[in-house]
Amino acid sequence: MQAKFGDTVKVHFVGRLPDGQVFAQSQPGNPVEFRIGEKRLLPGFEQAVVGMQPGETKTEAIPPALGYGLHDPAQLVTVTREQLGDEASVGERYTLRATNGDQVTATVVELSDETVLLDANHPLAGQEIVFDIHLLEIV
After folding, report:
1. Is residue 78 domain-shared with residue 45, that is, in the same domain?
2. Please, are residues 36 and 50 in contact by the beta-carbon 8 Å criterion?
3. In which residue ranges of the chain is pLDDT below 50?
4. From start to end of 32-75, where are the E strands?
């Protein structure tokens, strides 16, 4: 039996960058259960599970468009230092309110004496990612 769209599956996984740095993984004894096609997980991850059989393990490289998305320059915003305070530092993350009222998390990517450049893209946007996936069962 192979996993297909609409199936509920249980998997263990390790998500890493091409250099081997792990950014996410399932916990031993606590597999991730999801229905393929519900779009709860990254599109490339769900697509990688399609066709797998229980007990099978595979490694799949996911391009940015099917992972955390392409890096969108429109998600860069400049604010004054006064808006964030003097303690802002590169790499620090802030939760901001967008003009539509939604909360957005942004990372400080550049500082000057007067301004702060924030990036609201996902930290892994624009990057290829790799998943080691082990399909435990089709529920």
Report:
1. no
2. yes
3. none
4. 32-35, 57-62
DSSP strand pairing (129-138 vs 76-80): unpaired
| Residues comprising the chain, all counted | 139
Q: Which domain holds residue 15?
A: 8-69+125-138
Let me know: does 34 contact 41? Beta carbons within 8 Å: yes
Distance, in Å, from the CA atom of 3 to the CA atom of 53, rounded to the nearest integer, reads 6
C-alpha separations of 3 from 14, 26, 39, 56, 129 in Å: 19, 19, 15, 11, 22
Return the amino acid letter for 16. Answer: R
Is 12 in the same domain as 65? yes
User: How many whole angstroms separate alpha carbon 46 and alpha carbon 26?
Assistant: 15
The CATH number of the domain where 42 resides is what?
Answer: 3.10.50.40
* Number of folded domains that form the chain: 2
Is 1 contained in some domain? no
Burial of 135 (0-12, 13-18, 19+ CB in 10 A): buried
Using a cut of 0.90, tell me whether the model's pTM lies above it: no
Residues 6+ apart with CB under 8 A from 126: 64, 68, 69, 70, 71
